[in-house]
Amino acid sequence: MYLTITKPLTFEEFLAWDDGSGRDFELLNGVPVPLSEPNANHEDLIERLCAYLETHCLEANLPYISRQSKQVRLKIEPGEKEKSRKADIVIFAKEEWQRMKGNSSSAAAYVPPPGIIEVVSTNWKDDYLTKVAEYEELGVLEYIIVDYAALGGIRFIGSPKQPTIMIYQLENGEYLPGKIFRGGDRVESRLFPNLTLTAEQIFAMSR
Hints:
This protein has helices at about 10-15, 40-60, 95-100, 125-140, 155, 200-205; strands at about 25-30, 30-35, 65-75, 85-95, 115-120, 140-145, 165-170, 175, 180. By secondary structure, the chain is of the alpha+beta class. It is globular and about 50 Å long.
């Protein structure tokens, strides 16, 4: 059943909404906004990194579940219409994922997830500027930006541009300056303290 918008949608209504086009959407002030389709390299990196982290969490007995392309409910002020982001990879608390398995609601980040990973595409300003503020305000403990194609502005990834991973970690409600990883640097994550991946190994997942 396809639904037509006659009024601003709540997050739950948005998750059930379908315009019949098959496109992905985010929610902006109660209105669904279409997203650009990812290219093949972008999609491969997301799928492979998500699968790797899922296996890593099982082997390391970490309390997280990694899922790709999930809606994240953003924080809003009283009286504001609801907003969401469709994150490339969401790191859910295992307890929250199990709670969702017990009901018929769509799987999404209804509460702030421990971690979010975004793989940079041509709209890089969203990842480096807008989403940093949104995820900080939401209280996401770790926000990881994977810029495998070096698309970000030079003020973020330097000049000459090179593939970069930037990790923001929450401290007393604010993100610390992003940590930068390139080439053979081992990626240091609070959520995945025993991770042995280098930045280049993550970039190679797009190939």
